[in-house]
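Below is how a single chain appears once it has passed through the pipeline. First comes the sequence as given, then the structure the pipeline wrote out for it. We keep one example in the README because the format questions we get most often are answered faster by looking than by reading.
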Amino acid sequence: MKSSRPPGELDKDGIPLRYVGTLRFLLILFFWLVLGLLAFAQTPLRVTMLSDAATAGEPSLDSLIGSELEAILASRYQLDLGTLYTGGEPETMETAIQEAYRSADVVVATGLATSTALMERGTYARPSIAAVVLAAGQRGGPEGTGVENFTFIQSPFDIGRDLRTLRELVDYDVLTVLTTPNMRRGMAGVIDAELPDATVRYVEAGPTAAAALAEIDGSQAVYLTPLTGSMPLSEQITLLDSLADRGVATFSLLDQPLLSRGALAAYSSTENLEQLPRRVALDALRIMDGLPAAGLSTELTTYTSELLIDMAVARRADIYPNWETLSGATLLNPNDLPDARTLTLEGAVLEGLANNLGYDLSAYDVALAVTEVDIARSDLLPQLEVATTVTRLDGQTVASSFGQQGQYNWTANGTLNQVILSEPAFANVAINRFLLEGQQAALEQTQLDVVLDVATAYLNVLQSKVFADLQNENLAVTRANLNSATTKQKVGAGGATDVYRWESELALNKIEVNNAQAQLAQARYNLNQLLNRPINEDFQLPDFTGQDTLLGLVGQTILPLLNSPRDLDRLANFLADEARRNLPALDQLDAAINAQERQLLSAERAFYLPRVAINGQYNYRVANYGTVPLPEDLGFDFASEDRPRSTYTLGLNVAIPIFQGGRRKFVAERARVSVLQAQTQRQDLENQLLQRLYSDVETMVASYRNLNLARQAAETSTANFRIIEDLYRAGATNVTSLVDAQNVTLQSNINATNAGYQFVADFIALQRSTGSYQFLSGPAEQTDFLRRFIEY
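Resulting structure:
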């Protein structure tokens, strides 16, 4: 319906009616904008943090707590966040507290010293929160502190538990607490209450380790608080190393950073401390929402702690916890032996060749074969024998000798024999030389076997060590999941079934850890036996990247040339030719065949070759005593002094057997059969060696392909486990799915580890099948090997 008013009509105020509606809309819009601005205007809020640090650059919880305060409060308040640095000095802390109370709306103590200072106050001018307390005693609980304007957060520490565990590690008479000046008073109050009858010495850390060591001298145990700000990092490491060398047990209030610097043990605290900033920010928000600080609960039910023991430090200090303590702890560096000798793969191979008893036995066989050759050659050299004889004759013989023999007769003689022609002697020399060549080939074969055995044993130790480490890591993950399930049960977000399931998994994981440790020890014993070292001698293995090195070597040289199954056959045929030329086992049988053929030749020559030798004898009469002279009327005496004293004979001996009952024929036939047998053995052995070589080629190529697949499977299974773990902690999946994912991840990592070391083992086994270890050769030999394959 159209308006009946004319177009230019005015209202009562003289405003054209066509603008009245627009003005009304703008006024309403302005009204609501003003109301919105008034509604969303932020209330100013000043929060002051009291820091233990002396400057902003020192490590503390300040930044974490500050970030949480900004994340939670900045969206609702005009937040003014400030920090007062006290350095933990009592006077400075008191001054800072008074300054904060004059200007702040909420005061937060972010460190141990400042939290202790707040805890010891009786009155609080402003709402105050102690974020990190050592011990609350009887104060606090679900109903709060009951102290106006004051609350704190349940301590993430249990110093009494720490001291009890320290006594389980070492039964000390004197305990030294190494702390800083700003923490000494708070620590003394708690520890003296826990150990009223013990001898406790408090030492304030200074800038040098030497000064602290002088004051600690005589203590069997040291309890450590964070030393940052009092002692430089390098001096902390020196201090902890020196205490370990002295056999002193060290226990830290915080797990990090002192555990990584050489402390023996601590309870995990990092995750607990990470929960404090969010709780501080939430308490500050509740206070600003009108809840009294005195009524805020001080409990934090999500704390979880586990004992951490650095076994490398334990070995160095010669402190070994009992089995019960070990079974309930997470072991750090369980298989590291920093003070033991370092053994590399190349060093182990060289040491095996130098010390292996099996290799020594083969070397003795060669030495014996050398002596057999020398013995055979000695039969062809002149044989000279000298003898002397004294005889006593009876009276009748003396009387009938016509004065030529006495009752006592002393004679000397010499015999000389020289072989001129003797086929058995010549054959014996030649056969023993061939046998020597066979023993030398056997020594080379033993050398190859020792390299393979030592390398395999070395890889087994590496594999067992990684396997044990994976089992320990899996045990730590299971403990973390058990803690998570326990926390969820406490807050009502989970049931007892999850806890029981993780407790069962924890027990099973401990069994696997025990088995892995036993397997590692057995692998170490085996390697020591091969190296002829004390069976239980400790040694450490450097980080091994052999599989990646070989991956690069094979991936850049051989594999690019294998584009089809035919190329793989070509590689196998090339390696077969290399094996025929290099394998000492074939050389050993070739020597045996040569020996049998020489034996056959000797048997055939026995039909017509004589034995020719020269022999001579020289006799000399030294003296005759007690001769009977002939009667003088005979006119002569056979026993006169001028009769000849020496005689000699010289002869040439030629002998040929005429008939021996067919023995020579049978000997020749036996030798002929022995030759055929040795040749057949050689062919059979060559077939076996080549069959093994071809199989090793296929195995090595499959290992190369499987290694990359196994690593890919490990990466994807780990990523899948992280996702399911987050879902479980958020309550979006059940415990069975998480357990399955964790087991798959563990098995995938084990498979990836096994695949890596299996590839190296298969690569070495393939080179053993060719009779040459190219991975121990220099670059020139490896290049020449590749050239021969390309030209094949």
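Confidence is low (pLDDT under 50) at residues 1-7.

See the next section for the split statistics.
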